[in-house]
Description:
The structure holds 2 protein chains of 2 kinds. Chain A contains 18 helices and 22 strands. The two termini of chain A are 42 Å apart. In chain A, the strands form 5 sheets. A 6-stranded mixed β-sheet of chain A has the order 6-7-8-3-9-10, with helices on both faces. In chain A, strands 16-19-20-13-21-22 form a 6-stranded mixed β-sheet, with helices on both faces. By secondary structure, chain A is of the alpha/beta class. Chain A has helices at residues 5-10, 53-60, 83-89, 106-110, 127-140, 156-168, 186-201, 213-219, 242-250, 303-310, 333-338, 348-352, 359-363, 379-392, 409-423, 439-454, 466-472, 495-502, and strands at residues 15-24, 27-37, 42-47, 68-73, 76-78, 91-94, 174-178, 205-209, 222-227, 230-236, 268-276, 283-288, 292-297, 318-323, 326-327, 341-344, 372-373, 376-377, 427-431, 458-462, 475-480, 483-489. Chain B is mainly alpha-helical. Chain B is built from 13 helices and 2 strands. Chain B has a two-stranded antiparallel ribbon with strand order 1-2. In chain B, a hairpin with a 2-residue loop joins strand 1 and strand 2 (176-177). In chain B, helix 8 crosses helix 10 (220-246). Classes of the chains: A alpha/beta, B mainly alpha. The interface between A and B is large, with 46 and 35 residues. The site of adenosine-5'-triphosphate has 19 residues of chain A, from strand 2, helix 2 and helix 15.
Amino acid sequence: xxxxxxxxxxxxxxxxxxxxxxxxxxxxxxxxxxxxxxxxxxxxxxxxxxxxxxxxxxxxxxxxxxxxxxxxxxxxxxxxxxxxxxxxxxxxxxxxxxxxxxxxxxxxxxxxxxxxxxxxxxxxxxxxxxxxxxxxxxxxxxxxxxxxxxxxxxxxxxxxxxxxxxxxxxxxxxxxxxxxxxxxxxxxxxxxxxxxxxxxxxxxxxxxxxxxxxxxxxxxxxxxxxxxxxxxxxxxxxxxxxxxxxxxxxxxxxxxxxxxxxxxxxxxxxxxxxxxxxxxxxxxxxxxxxxxxxxxxxxxxxxxxxxxxxxxxxxxxxxxxxxxxxxxxxxxxxxxxxxxxxxxxxxxxxxxxxxxxxxxxxxxxxxxxxxxxxxxxxxxxxxxxxxxxxxxxxxxxxxxxxxxxxxxxxxxxxxxxxxxxxxxxxxxxxxxxxxxxxxxxxxxxxxxxxxxxxxxxxxxxxxxxxxxxxxxxxxxxxxxxxxxxxxxxxxxxxxxxxxxxxxx
Amino acid sequence: xxxxxxxxxxxxxxxxxxxxxxxxxxxxxxxxxxxxxxxxxxxxxxxxxxxxxxxxxxxxxxxxxxxxxxxxxxxxxxxxxxxxxxxxxxxxxxxxxxxxxxxxxxxxxxxxxxxxxxxxxxxxxxxxxxxxxxxxxxxxxxxxxxxxxxxxxxxxxxxxxxxxxxxxxxxxxxxxxxxxxxxxxxxxxxxxxxxxxxxxxxxxxxxxxxxxxxxxxxxxxxxxxxxxxxxxxxxxxxxxxxxxxxxxxxxxxxxxxxxxxxxxxxxxxxxxxxxxxxxxxxxxxxxxxxxxxxxxxxxxxxxxxxxxxxxxxxxxxxxxxxxxxxxx
Lengths: 504, 328
Ligand SMILES: Nc1ncnc2c1ncn2[C@@H]1O[C@H](COP(=O)(O)OP(=O)(O)OP(=O)(O)O)[C@@H](O)[C@H]1O
Ligand SMILES: [Mg+2]
């Protein structure tokens, strides 16, 4: 990728920052970053976990104030006092984590906090108008959804669209999306892409953050790479390729994204028979020691439910579980953990982390005895354990005392992984383990998975990224509507077969 | 992928800002206590006398002890407003055991404590197994337990206690009143539990994110139960001290104590959202309120105003808590 900054200078930028700088305690998140976008372009923003992507867009949307540098909107120097000011200027954002209220309808979510009022009776909410307006927004995105539907009944992709509609409702000229695709499966991705193309056709400028590089080649015109809080390069997508992009992101080239492993698969460790619940229909599977079993399926296929049922987190109506040939009754998560099972959950914010606690405190929650001296917690052991995993997983943090909520999304995900590595489980269920994790760090995680199975442990890996499943699994089972629709060996599996089975 | 740990590169402004937010968040209550002390020592000559300081400590001890239990329930993202009624019932039961059955003092004390722990168990059961919101469960218990106290006593005080019990509420070890010593022991124990054991760690984790704690294999119900039983037990301990001070069991005892204990915890930086707070903070919160009340007495301000001020302090403290949570 040549330094084609000139290209983006040719026309006047709609939004531009120069010499941007942002510090957090112990972290220089952005250093002298220049960044500009032109009207109507789709700009991808990529970089490793903690590179500063979310921080940059939070500055562009008024969530954070910069510590240095200037910001120009349509050529004029401005400051964006807060998120509301940003939205009023026409800069909207769909954040890394969804911010919808589950119990409210689509319409209520879109107009949350600023209801439209009746002209004649300005104290009354004009529901008709709000319904009309929100329907119009969804129509603009070319999606068919009932605006009266409660958000909790929507799929993740549909929620994503509600977020986009909400952002659009502020007459938005620039739409910034922070990892909108992280929670979507390949099929749902197409819905998002269609929405992006539609917006682009309407002249909306888009800044798109993602760790899934293949997407960038599908939808972006230009791409900016950040590394260690610095701007590395900006250029046309057409002028670069995947491996070049990876090289600018991680600072070295990566030929193989999935490391090989050499291990022997042993005896059956776990046997699940006829699991039945409201979301599972007679599911049976076997897992051998030293094996990675991939689980494929669309969102809603029951993969997470299966994981939770094995782990004792949800009630099941029937079925048995054998560990090393012996039947075990797992009634609660604590039983499962004691018997050597672990679950790395899909939703790190809700299910994985205590955000208000430090990294040190989070990491030992699964196996507190590791940091105890008889009944008292040992600060020395805690420190040692956290530093060990900070190094092992290369978690970017000023130290173990950092509150987890202050870590970047990908680094939070690594803390969840660390927590379960600490537990030293024999069987680990990973539900979307690399969600939001950059290419370089993914590789590290794959190495770690290999290390685990080579040590005789077993892994069930649920993933919506087919290349990852194909690259890492010894065997893949595919689910559809709560049933297992097929099983493929590593040799016979390919994308097409999986997609066919996933469709039912 | 190196970690950018560049202290030197941080501007002075950022560092200063970080320092002040840290101070505001963690040590706000220290400054409040110091400021109040300085102001009052100018307004009243007797305020800083040794006698008065010991007096303040003794006055604060009962609320301070209750506040520790309430602290654990609030940290677990619950609350316990039944403590005032527990003070009364535990005291009455102890008094009855001592008077009606002429039991030895330690038996009476154990009976009183058992009552408190049992009330805490019921609260914990309602909150965990029956999934009743803590506010409602303990509000119901507040009414029910107070009612039971009246039923048992017909609303008459229980008097005629043996002298042996007086030591707990009125005794001194050297110059230090016994309730103050009990308070110090309770705080020392609570500090160790909160900061240095898995019990404390898990209660904080549960208050911070119950689902994540559950999915980490923590037995959430067990630790919540611990919080409520501790709260009941410590309220009972306060009730025992009170009976001993008054030399009788009063069915009206402890009315409004829940209010002061919650205020002490919240003023001391315990977040009503759960998952945040410190034991030293709660201690300072209790001291702060005792100083405030003591100061008003010294300055001859009527008790009606005292009541008003307590309410205002609680609201201000919660406002600070809400504001702190809003910036995330
Ligand atoms: N509120 C905060 N307080 C302290 N540090 C922060 C805060 N927000 C971000 N950081 C730090 O700033 C750096 C950049 O974080 P940022 O969230 O911008 O990364 P990112 O590029 O979006 O990463 P990811 O791909 O993991 O989402 C990280 O080291 C992060 O820990
Ligand atoms: Mg981010």
